[in-house]
Amino acid sequence: MTKEKGEKRKMGGKKVVEEKEIEEVKDNENLKKQLENAKNEIKSLKEENAKLKEAYIRKVADFDNLKKRTQKEKEDAIKYGNASLLLSILDVVDNFERAVAVEPEKSDFHSFYEGVRLIEKHLKDILFSAGVEEINPENQPFDPFYHEAMMKEMRDDVPDGTVTAVFQKGYKYKDRLLRPAKVRVAINPKEHQEKQDNQANEKKESEE
Predict the structure, then answer these.
(1) How many CA atoms lie within 13 A of 50 on its CB side?
(2) What is the b/e burial string over 180-197, where b = at least 16 CB atoms within 10 angstroms of the residue's CB?
(3) pTM of the full predicted structure?
(4) How far apart are CA 104 and CA 94, in angstroms?
(5) Which of 84, 119, 181, 186 is the most exposed, having the fewest neighbouring CB atoms within 10 Å of its CB?
(6) Which residues of the chain have pLDDT under 70?
(7) Sheet containing 147-154: order of strands
(8) SS3 for 169?
């Protein structure tokens, strides 16, 4: 009886050992699968990383080329920006050359004058098409931003500060002043005195 029990215990213990070995084998197989999956995932990540790195390098190179091309275009725009304007002005030079090439005895003054006027108009049209505007303020109020007073004259027949003569026209390019108009400005004695009195009164009131 005792012997049978011993045999049973021995068999039971062997069965437990076999089950543990089976479980260990299964665990090892699972670990191998996990390790294989991890290796495949690492390989996939490396390949993806290599592609991303290659794409990044290509993008950096493209950006660098774009930057260089943009810089060159900017330099060319600055260097040759006035080429079309200068080409148009050359047409005016050609017209002047034709005008002065005519022998004096074969031309009359009126024809010569009209020819020069046409050349002047042509040149102004070129400047205006390029965004240049003329400042001719005769009979307009004096504006210190666009006019330079060269002379003043006493006048009681025009408002104080009126431009009565333009010695040299001014010009502006788009919204930037190229040069102010050089002008003569009228001083109306009565209005001028009234302005000075008003300014003195305003100053006095502000000080009180």
Answers:
(1) 6
(2) bbbbbbbbbeebeeeeee
(3) 0.54
(4) 18
(5) 84
(6) 1-22, 24-27, 80-81, 83, 86, 100, 102-107, 204, 208
(7) 147-154, 181-187, 163-168
(8) coil
- Dihedral-angle region of residue 139 (phi above 0 means left; psi in -120 to 50 means alpha; beta otherwise): left
- Taking only the tens place, the pLDDT of each residue in 18-35 is 666 667 666 677 778 888
Name the β-bridge partners of 133: 172
| Cβ(171)–Cβ(133) below 8 Å | yes
pLDDT at 106: 62
The answer to whether 188 and 204 have CB atoms below 8 angstroms apart is no
Cβ atoms of residues 197 and 176 within 8 Å = no
DSSP state of 180: P
pLDDT score at 9: 57
Contact by Cβ (8 Å): 155, 124: no
**CATH level 2 (architecture), domain 134-208:** Roll (2.30)
The rounded distance, in Å, linking the Cα atoms of 168 and 156 is: 24
